[in-house]
Design brief:
The complex is a heterodimer of chains A (about 160) and B (about 170). Helices cover about 25% and strands about 25% of the residues of chain A. Chain A has about 160 residues and is an alpha/beta fold. Chain A has a domain of about 100 residues: NADH:ubiquinone oxidoreductase Nqo5 subunit (Beta Polymerase, domain 2), CATH 3.30.460. Chain B has one domain: Rossmann fold, CATH 3.40.50.12280.
Chain lengths: ~160, ~170
């Protein structure tokens, strides 16, 4: 049953350019940013992927485009996981928000915006969620110095 | 002075009678204060498990008069910072410390509160002594309960030896 749905997804959602692969039982699909929202919508409404597990990003400083935004979905009907990847450039790290499909996207996109500076177009509230107001930069980017602190309280002398 | 004894001396040691006692104000107040520590547990991370172990029956900090946590900083005199403090939490810790009445003492419980531990990144504060004064440091990740008891006893010795102004700075 899982193999059947994976085959269907491969046939239906695989874009022409990238070859989808199976990683530890998870179907990995790479899509251009423009096709992201449409693909996620089909996963959500057509194929029964009702659980949005996570959105995060990967910083590849040597690559162009630099950032890879990674989504994980799970189907409680088919018991199958799908990973969706899309690459965005440093100059314009913008992808469409999935808030209209999954309520949990609100907070997870805020965290990804905190840590990597990915802008989720359509998310109504991208305030810091783990960081604090006034924090400059995005700490999980590779060019953020690991010993760079931004204390809120002045240190004792 | 022996630890745990009441600092009183009979006026006439030969008779053995205690018609009146004489002591020093600082010794008496220090003796009272060192056995009535009311901790405020500022517990943020995994060291909390060791804090629970040390305050429960097998180790029993009640023997040192320091087992009853007060969950209001205004009623406590020992701030136990147990676990990692982040930069985002630092203003909260300072506010808690400032709400405590004098006299007050601070214990940095575990490696993270002492020095930031193994964290060196954008999030963690590298030791609470960067923002508030610390009286006793407890090493360990997490500390053994014996280490915590040793720290309490060291703090008690320090309180017993300290000057305790109760009316003016000099008295």
């Amino acid at each position: 049953m899982a193999a059947a749905i994976i085959d269907t997804l491969r046939r239906e959602l695989s874009p022409d350019s990238a070859e989808p692969c199976l990683s530890h039982g998870t179907l990995v699909l790479t899509v251009p940013p423009a096709a992201l929202l449409a693909t996620a919508r089909r996963l959500c409404s057509e194929f029964g992927f009702d659980l949005f597990l996570d959105v995060t990003a990967v910083d590849w400083p040597q690559r162009t485009p630099r950032f890879e935004v990674v989504y994980h979905f799970y189907s409680s009907v088919h018991h199958v996981r799908v990973r969706l990847k899309t690459a965005v450039p440093e100059a314009e790290p913008v992808v469409d928000s999935l808030c209209s499909l999954y309520g949990s996207a609100h907070f997870m996109e805020r965290e990804c915006h905190d840590m990597y500076g990915i802008v989720f177009r359509g998310n109504p509230d991208l305030r810091p969620i783990l960081l604090y107001e006034g924090f400059v930069g995005h700490p999980l980017r590779k060019d953020y110095r690991k010993d760079h602190e931004q204390p809120l309280v002045s240190y004792r002398t | 002075m022996n630890r745990g004894t009441i600092p009183i001396r009979p006026a006439h040691p030969q008779s053995g009678a205690l018609e009146y006692i004489s002591t020093k104000k600082d010794e008496l107040v220090g003796w009272a204060r060192k056995f009535s520590l009311f901790p405020y547990p500022f517990v943020t991370a995994c060291c909390a498990m060791e804090f629970m172990a040390v305050s429960s029956t097998p180790y029993d900090t009640d023997r040192f008069g320091a087992a009853l946590p007060r969950f209001s900083p205004r009623q406590s005199d020992l701030l136990m910072v147990v676990g990692t403090v982040t930069h985002k939490q630092a203003p909260v810790l300072v506010k808690v410390y400032e709400q405590m009445c004098e006299p007050k003492w601070v214990m940095a419980f575990g490696a993270c509160a002492t020095s930031g531990g193994f964290y060196q990144n954008y999030a963690a504060l590298a030791g609470i002594d960067k923002i508030i004064p610390v009286d006793v440091y407890v090493p360990g990740c997490p500390p053994r309960p014996e280490t915590v008891i040793d720290a309490i006893m060291q703090l008690q010795d320090r309180i017993a030896r300290a000057h305790h102004p109760i009316i003016t700075k000099t008295f």
